[in-house]
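Protein modeling request. Please complete all fields; requests missing the sequence field cannot be processed.
Requester role: graduate student
Desired output: 3D structure, token encoding
Chains: 1
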Amino acid sequence: MDYRDRITSDPDRRSGKPIIKGTRMTVTDVLEYLASGMTHAEILKDFPYITEEDIRACLAFAADRERMLRTIPPSV
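Delivered output (76 residues):
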């Protein structure tokens, strides 16, 4: 999946945070719901304007961002 089809960033929406296209739902919102223990089904029920593919796009976005982080070794 190419998350760029579903995730966008606009400085005029949610302070430029990455959001699901056509919504005000941020990637962070979705990740926090998942981290708190909500299932995909629960998120989709509470937010019927997003899809399963949107949730997967948020996860793909987060994985891609994690890959781009630079690791700095601790000082000895």
